[in-house]
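Figure 2 data, in text form.
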Amino acid sequence: MDYEHTQKAPLAYVLVAAALAALAIAWVGRDEPAAWIVAVGVAATLVLVAAMFSHLTVRDEGHCLAIRYGPLPVFQKRFPYADIQSVQKGRTSIIDGWGIHWVPGRGTTYNLWGFDCAVLRVGGKTVRIGTDDVDNLVAFLRQKIGRQTE
């Protein structure tokens, strides 16, 4: 394994704070069953989303680049190096959003926080991988792709 980097997201703290606010609303509305159920449901959903998207790990797995959101590892993706045609440094835009998104004409974005990304051409499609370590990721991928074609 030659590359591994984990980016943490402050957004997870915002989601947990919103979950605590929802629990406070549930406490205030505890005499109203419907309000209590909705508020607790919202709080649970926010905590779950925070657990799924509090960090993004990008790592080399020998034959492929793997990305994994966590610590609850629900969303992960692997890109075989043999399928990566090119890589360059780029930036996402507001339309790409944070999380996992597909935007027509822009491709798929895997992002957590910030706007720096590695832009990959994979099987003729554009993939953006957000990172706060873009220079090292792009350099690593260029080296890895070079090995695939030698």
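Caption note: DSSP finds three helices and nine strands in the chain.
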